[in-house]
Amino acid sequence: MDEPRVLDLRHPPRTPPLPSCWLVTPDAQSIGELLAPRTLDAAEQRTAAAFHSEQEGLGYMTAHVALRTLLGAALGRAPEAIRLVRRPCPDCGGPHGRPAVGGSALHFSLARTGGLALIALAARPVGVDIERVPDPDTAERLASELHPRERHELAALPAGSRPGAVARIWVRKEAHSKGLGIGLARPLDLDYVGAGPPPRLAEWQLHDLAAPAGHRAALASATP
């Protein structure tokens, strides 16, 4: 998997390669806001309007315009013609598993934090996450919920290095859970992913991705 490419909504790719990963920055929000009324479906527009913060709603709209733009380019469809659905949950069978495109085998994953979004497209199941590095107190709280080996490794690090390491572990776990289609329903202490070289999980490969300063990002891809 190549490093994320910055998506320019004014000049989107004609045919995104598979697999590929795309970073959506706040610079895209002006065009995202312009395209949203004719690109997003009614459910997405209601979700965007429900955010308490106008900036959060704008970030959501831009991310979903970007997602539909990439999916449409990959499938040869108009962005507004993309029908987003949910696959069955692998745990309970309910309609809240991995998001999917109706009538297509293409896989994708979307993550947002602040004004940033990360989107992955692939022929196999995939999950991505991007997060801001937490403050020391939040990092300490999150660390207490992790795998015992991860807690031990974090405790051995200098205090100033722990927030970044916690963020690295967190995005790896979130990307893996999103790839599985269960989100944070998977206990944080169940899988060891560490903050060093990414380990190989059963049927999944983890990849650390380049991210803007103060952030960490990761991708999980299903292995053949």
From TrEMBL:
Source species, domain of life:
Bacteria
Domain 4'-phosphopantetheinyl transferase: where? Answer: 125-191
Identify the GO cellular component terms for this protein: cytosol
Q: What InterPro entries does the entry give?
A: 4-PPantetheinyl_Trfase_dom (IPR008278), 4-PPantetheinyl_Trfase_dom_sf (IPR037143), P-Pant_transferase_sf (IPR050559)
> Which molecular function terms from Gene Ontology are attached?
holo-[acyl-carrier-protein] synthase activity; magnesium ion binding
| Presence of keyword Transferase | yes
Q: Which SUPFAM superfamilies match?
A: 4'-phosphopantetheinyl transferase
From its record, what is one biological process in GO terms?
A: lysine biosynthetic process via aminoadipic acid
Q: Which UniProt keywords apply?
A: Transferase
Question: Which family does the entry's similarity section mention?
Answer: Belongs to the P-Pant transferase superfamily. Gsp/Sfp/HetI/AcpT family.
This protein is called 4-phosphopantetheinyl transferase
Q: Which organism is it from?
A: Streptomyces globosus
